């Protein structure tokens, strides 16, 4: 089985094509843009190819830092969104000073972690956020931990919480859930057999 970096190196632009039209990606971005101002600092965890998250937020005048474990994704992101900063790193290994960001975006980036690592990352996100800072988290809910699943044709170990458990995990980390949305999505170009449920949560540092 390939590790996550190898999987996303293989997927490259195919990942962007499959998920670019996910409605909750765009709804999450709209919600953030309604709250952000030019010059605000944004951290994009698991930034992928940079589209659409880093591209749209940097286009609104925000300073965007993207982190990704895939060298292929980082190379694509630097080409697509040259105005943002992208670092090749595991999100578990990177740290920032307290209150460095107005917004942290985590779109599907916690799925390959363990539950203990997810809880640790949520605590770190809270520390990195400025007062009243926001976290936008998009995931595939489920009562699973390190379960082998097929992801765009590749076997990968996935972890999540149920839709009912996610708000509790955020609130335990000191993040107040403002609202959540959930709906099914079929990755572009895939069969309905690959339908997955998406869960978007917007939370604020308390």
Automatic annotation (TrEMBL):
SUPFAM superfamilies in UniProt: S-adenosyl-L-methionine-dependent methyltransferases
Domain Methyltransferase: 42-133
Keywords: Methyltransferase, Transferase
Keyword Transferase (UniProt): yes
Name of the protein: Methyltransferase domain-containing protein
């Amino acid at each position: 089985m390939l590790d996550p970096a190898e999987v996303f190196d293989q997927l490259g632009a195919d990942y962007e094509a499959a998920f670019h039209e996910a409605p909750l990606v765009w709804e999450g971005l709209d919600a953030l843009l309604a709250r952000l101002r030019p010059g605000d600092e944004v951290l994009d965890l698991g930034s992928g190819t940079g589209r659409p998250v880093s591209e749209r937020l940097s286009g609104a005048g925000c300073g965007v830092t993207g982190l990704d474990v895939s060298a292929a994704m980082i190379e694509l992101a630097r080409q697509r969104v040259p105005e943002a900063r992208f670092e090749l790193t595991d999100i578990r290994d990177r740290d920032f000073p307290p209150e460095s960001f107005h917004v942290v975006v985590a779109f599907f980036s916690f799925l390959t972690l363990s539950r203990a690592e997810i809880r640790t990352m949520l605590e770190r996100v809270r520390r990195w956020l400025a007062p009243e800072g926001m976290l936008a988290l998009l995931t595939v809910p489920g009562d699973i931990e390190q379960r082998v699943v097929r992801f765009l044709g590749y076997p990968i170990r996935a972890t999540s919480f149920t839709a009912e458990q996610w708000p509790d995990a955020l609130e335990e980390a000191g993040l107040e859930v403002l609202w959540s949305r959930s709906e099914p999505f079929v990755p572009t170009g895939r069969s309905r057999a690959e339908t997955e449920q998406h869960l978007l949560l917007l939370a604020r540092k308390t």
